[in-house]
Known about the structure:
single chain
Amino acid sequence: MQKGREIFVSKNTGDDDNPGTKELPKKMLWKIFSGLIDGDVVRVAEGIEFGEMKNGVMPPITKSVVLEGGWKSDFSERNPFKYLTIITAGFDKGGATSEVFRCEDRKISVTIDGFCIDRGGGCIYYSDGEMGANKRIDGHKDCTPWGYRSINRKMSGSDPSIELIGETMIVRNNIIINSPWWGIYVKGGGNGNILIENNLVLGFQGRGIEAITGGGWGAPNWVIRNNTVAFGWAMEGRGVSLDPKGDNGKVLFERNVIAFCSQSAVMTKFDVTGDNLQLVDNQFFFNKMGDFGKGGSAVCNANDFEDSLKFKTRKNVHEVPRFITRIAQQWLDRYTMTLDLTSKLAKDQELDAARALAGLVEWLPIGFTDKKYPNYSSLPVGRANYDLGRYPHPMKEGEGLDADGWHKYVLPMLGLDGERGVQANPEH
């Protein structure tokens, strides 16, 4: 990447007429995209960015750049999990489901590092109030992010939260929640290195991470490590989707935590052999179609990797992740109550183990969805008989997941799984 400029952006202290220096930063991140040149490094301070027209998305990336969030307001220190650079949609922008960051020029290189992306404000949920009670709840609206909704149903036009197509890509230190479709999508090429590390993808539909090489477009080396991917919903709900074949690049997949996906934790399109894919020191738990799957079908859980898989695996475990101890308790209760256990590779005993770690009673499958109840408190054993909304809980208009909410409901999950999963104090 050629030498570019340092551009500083601060929603809280900047001004769009400023030159973009550390002392006089720009204000709106989305406004600088049209003026970027190859080699620019954009350093973004803590604060909440809503994007153009408050739609929660940024313009396309057309130059080789580094976008780096997580700086303190005065740019004296950087820690993306302490000084939160939050990108979210305004509360009147339901349905804004385009990519937050996107690059579709395979000739350039892009780094997305250190952003907190909450797509709940831009998703359309459905169902009105408490489903079983057939009653709207005061302050909640229909077909907006604030009702009690089934989370992240795909709509026509939904896109990944981060979508990059290029030759040298880095996606790290990001927190992505409430994605209406995929969390991170990277299509790589050339013969360089592509890194996806230390990202939390929580609450998504489709795939948490998809990392594939473009057909006939080189054979890059992929490193995917220290990511936490959890709570993938219907319409696939795969944790990570890969396509390693050797002639299109090799994948090292290490120290990740993948849990509670409605399909497999790791899914490949075709058979994998040798060292084309290496699964090393990962933690898996309650993935309904197994910890590894192929072509849309379940294969096996981690305790059978060595016996069943034809590629390199070692030190993988199937254990309840510790971040469950910090998940929003009511949200986890609603999530587990709505599950349909049809896979032999995901047991209700595992749900009980996770619920116990979170301080909840044993799992009880929902069996009363057609009966009407006057209110939440009258439901059997106090359980909701409606689908849940955005994480961490269904929102009322104006509540929003602001910086305080991130500190209360999301950041406490980071770093609890030791050397696996997202690291609370990133090295980069």
